[in-house]
Amino acid sequence: MSTSTAVTTAPVNPRGRVILASLIGTSIEFYDFYVYATAAVLVFPTLFFPAQSPATALLSSFAVFGAAFVGRPLGSILFGHFGDRIGRKGTLIASLLTMGIATFLIGVLPSASTPGWTVLAPTLLVIFRFAQGIGLGGEWSGAALLATENAPAGKRAIYGTFPQLGAPIGFIVANVLFLVLNLAMSPEAFAAWGWRIPFLASALLVIVGLYVRFRLVEAPAFTKVVESGAVAKLPLGRVFRTSWRQLILGTFIMLATYVLFYLMTTFTLAFGTTATSVGVAADAAKAAGKPFNPATFVPGLGYTRNEFLIMLIIGVVFFGIFTLVSGPLAERFGRRRMLSTVTVGIIVFGLLFVPLSGGGIVGVLAWLIIGFSLMGLTFGPMGAQLPELFATNVRYTGSGISYNFSSILGAAVAPYIALALWGLAGGSTILVGIYLSIAAVLTFIALRLSKETRDSDFTTIVE
């Protein structure tokens, strides 16, 4: 049985503060997340897995990268419980602190070559990476609810794009900082200590985010839940009991988005900066004094680290632009129709992975721009789509579980699977593209099985 109540039309928090608080928090969280993702390709294989071959070290680094995605669903359950029990504001502050502290500790972690740290360093890296996932698991749904539960009528999808915009902003800030450091110091200095700067800088960003969030008051929708006595004693149990279908659909609705993004960032950085031939790779390894096993070599595009980072940053600018564009489109055409159309585009894009990636700088840049534009169009509406699937008293938990369980199926394994398929195809990305298309087909099916939520009653307190 559903119970509804009218929520005041004027949000308690000023709209500018809502937008800033939802945007700045996710920007910081994603900055922290992408700092690790970039370091996982650029320096962590050498620093934390020095005894392994370059290919195996990269796979190990990606495996640690995936540890955060195991933590994310747990974070959504933990922070979702408190977000639905005690409120959105305090929970959002706690998630930001969790992410920020873990990132700072990675920045002061000794490398595996430090005496006495051979085993402890990679072990602590896994733990801190897991904690990053816990924090981000609680952050996203809280930020999305902060935006949508304070949104004016008919603008939930538009307001919901602001926390989503934190993803491209965080990515750009993190990678621009890495790029500046690469240009400002020698490779030896960067590997020795320069890589730590982005992690340590996170502390300053967290202070700014905390200041903004402490100035918030509780979301009016949650206040109504408290006033009506409808707070769920165990949100996790209730959401599985009353909204299990929405949990499944929400998880698969997010699947293509996750696979696309982590292929376009983490995988492409490895693919784009790998040498084009065995000879070139062997010469580079010899010059760097690193071991090289030609049997494990898989050819890539051969760009330098800085060249490809610049191309990635250009692509992510389009990610941000189309994230903002997606909100008005989702309001006009509805979430289901708009996302279904974009998902068909992702299916086609996956089938075109090979010709676009093989067309030189222009082709690679076009490949990145198209992929990130599709990413913005599919990611932007999720800030409203997933929360709209659930009633207010389980909305934090339900939307967070869908978002973060999808991260296990999509993001956690995407770079690892893509590397394996890339090697299996002998350097071609054709199998990687097919993998993306299959994930998008599953998302398309989930969308067609779901209902349109644009005009749903967002004031429903319980189900």
Automatic annotation (TrEMBL):
CDD domains: MFS_ShiA_like. The keyword Repeat does not apply. It is a multi-pass membrane protein. The keyword Cytoplasm does not apply. Its main location: membrane. Residues 18-451 form the Major facilitator superfamily (MFS) profile domain. GO terms for cellular component: plasma membrane. It is found in: Cell membrane. Gene3D superfamilies: MFS general substrate transporter like domains. The chain crosses the membrane at residues 57-79, 91-109, 165-185, 197-214, 247-271, 308-326, 338-355, 361-380, 401-424, 430-449. One of its GO terms (molecular function) is transmembrane transporter activity. Keywords: Cell membrane, Membrane, Transmembrane, Transmembrane helix, Transport. SUPFAM superfamilies: MFS general substrate transporter. InterPro entries: MFS_dom, MFS_sugar_transport-like, MFS_trans_sf, Sugar_transporter_CS. Pfam families: Sugar_tr. PANTHER family: INNER MEMBRANE METABOLITE TRANSPORT PROTEIN YHJE, SHIKIMATE TRANSPORTER. This is MHS family MFS transporter. The lineage of its organism: Bacteria, Bacillati, Actinomycetota, Actinomycetes, Micrococcales.
